[in-house]
C-alpha cells in the first residue's frame, strides 16, 4: 500500500508527464520588456525562440520604451578612449542612479568614430578613415539589448566620395532608416539613398535641395537628430540653419535659427533633442560667461524658438 506521500508523488509525476505549460509569446515579451539589459543578454542563450523574440525590432522598441518610462528620461552616453581606441556605450537614468555599461567596441583599422545616436532602441554611428588622402566612412547599427552589430553595406563600393550617414525613425511605418548623402569626388553631383532596416536594402531617391541651400553648406560627419519622423542636421555655423529631411514625404527643408540672437549661438552650436523638441546648445563660451545658451524649437510648424539660459553652479576657471 502506498503512503500518502507516495500517492502525491505518483500523482505529481503523472501530471508532469501529461501537462506541458506554455506561455504565449505576448506574455513572454511583456515579462522580458521589464527586465534589465543584463538579464536579456543571458536569456538569449536559453532557447532559439527566445533569441528570435529578443532580436525583433518590435521588442527592441518596447524594451527601450519601458526602460525610458521607468527612469523618466534615460541618458545615452558614448565614450571614446584615445589610448585604447575603444568605443563604449553606457546608459543612466536621468533622475539619478547607477550607470549601466551596454557594450564596448574594440579598436579596428578605422581611425575614429563620429558621435553616436541612440534612437528607439538602436544605435547608429560612423567609422571614418583616411585612404590616399581622402576621407571614407562606414555606418554601423548596434542593438545594445542583444549586443549585435550590423554593418550597413555600401551601395557603391567602386564609387568614391565624401559620405554622410543620417539616422532616422519613421513613426508611420515603425521603421529605422539610414539616409546616405554622398558628394562625389571629381564631381559636383550628390547622390541620395535610403537604407531600410526592415528590408535591408538601399533605394535611390531624387530630391532637390531646398531653395537657397547648396550641398557645400552641409557639414559632413556631424551627428543627426530625429524628431517626429524628421531627420535634422546642422549646416555650416555661418549659415545659422538646420537641414531637415522628412522621412514620410522624402523632402528637404531648412529651419533657420534666430538670427537676431546669433551672438548667443557662438561658433560651434550643437544640435540636440530635448523633451521631444529640437534644441541648439552653445557651450564654447561657458568658461567666459559661466553660462550655456539653449534654444528650443517649441513650435515646429511656426518656427518659434524659445531661449533658456543655464547658469553653471560655480565658475569653471
Give the strand content: 35-45%
Shape: globular
CA(first)-CA(last) distance: 89 Å
SSE arrangement, N to C: HHHHHEEEEEEEEEEEEEEEEEEHEE
Total helix count?
6
Quaternary: single chain
Question: Which secondary-structure class do the elements indicate?
Answer: alpha+beta
Mean pLDDT equals 75
Please describe what this structure looks like.
With 317 residues, the chain is an alpha+beta fold. It is 17% helix and 41% strand. The protein is built from 6 helices and 20 strands. It has helices at residues 4-18, 25-32, 37-43, 48-54, 57-70, 286-289; strands at 74-80, 87-93, 100-105, 112-113, 117-119, 122-131, 134-143, 148-151, 161-170, 175-184, 190-196, 201-205, 225-227, 230-234, 241-246, 251-256, 270-274, 277-282, 291-299, 304-311. Strands 4, 5, 6, 7 and 8 form a 5-stranded antiparallel beta sheet that branches. The protein has a 4-stranded antiparallel beta sheet with strand order 9-10-11-12, with no helix packed on it. The longest helix has 15 residues, at 4-18. The N and C termini lie far apart (89 Å).
Amino acid at each position: 500500500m502506498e503512503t500518502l506521500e507516495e500517492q502525491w508523488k505518483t500523482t505529481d509525476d503523472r501530471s508532469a508527464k501529461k501537462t506541458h505549460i506554455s506561455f504565449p509569446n505576448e506574455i513572454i515579451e511583456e515579462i522580458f520588456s521589464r527586465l534589465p539589459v543584463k538579464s536579456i543578454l543571458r536569456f538569449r542563450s536559453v532557447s532559439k525562440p527566445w533569441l528570435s523574440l529578443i532580436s525583433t525590432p518590435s521588442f527592441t522598441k518596447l524594451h527601450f520604451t519601458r526602460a525610458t518610462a521607468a527612469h523618466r528620461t534615460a541618458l545615452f552616453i558614448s565614450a571614446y578612449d584615445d589610448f585604447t581606441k575603444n568605443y563604449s556605450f553606457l546608459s543612466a537614468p536621468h533622475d539619478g542612479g547607477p550607470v549601466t555599461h551596454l557594450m564596448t567596441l574594440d579598436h579596428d583599422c578605422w581611425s575614429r568614430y563620429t558621435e553616436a545616436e541612440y534612437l528607439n532602441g538602436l544605435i547608429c554611428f560612423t567609422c571614418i578613415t583616411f585612404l590616399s588622402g581622402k576621407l571614407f566612412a562606414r555606418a554601423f547599427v548596434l542593438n545594445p539589448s542583444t549586443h549585435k552589430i550590423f554593418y550597413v553595406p555600401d551601395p557603391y563600393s567602386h564609387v568614391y566620395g565624401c559620405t554622410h550617414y543620417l539616422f532616422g525613425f519613421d513613426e508611420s511605418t515603425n521603421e529605422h532608416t539610414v539616409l546616405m548623402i554622398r558628394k562625389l569626388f571629381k564631381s559636383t553631383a550628390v547622390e541620395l539613398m535610403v537604407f531600410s532596416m526592415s528590408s535591408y536594402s538601399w533605394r535611390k531617391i531624387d530630391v532637390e535641395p531646398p531653395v537657397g541651400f547648396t550641398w557645400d553648406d552641409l557639414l559632413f560627419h556631424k551627428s543627426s537628430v530625429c524628431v517626429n519622423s524628421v531627420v535634422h542636421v546642422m549646416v555650416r555655423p555661418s549659415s545659422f540653419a538646420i537641414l531637415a529631411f522628412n522621412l514620410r514625404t522624402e523632402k528637404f527643408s531648412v529651419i533657420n535659427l534666430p538670427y537676431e540672437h546669433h551672438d548667443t549661438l557662438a561658433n560651434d552650436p550643437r544640435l540636440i533633442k530635448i523633451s521631444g523638441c529640437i534644441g541648439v546648445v552653445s557651450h564654447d563660451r561657458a568658461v567666459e560667461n559661466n553660462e550655456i545658451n539653449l534654444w528650443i524649437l517649441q513650435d515646429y510648424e511656426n518656427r518659434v524658438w524659445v531661449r533658456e539660459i543655464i547658469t553653471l553652479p560655480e565658475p569653471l576657471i
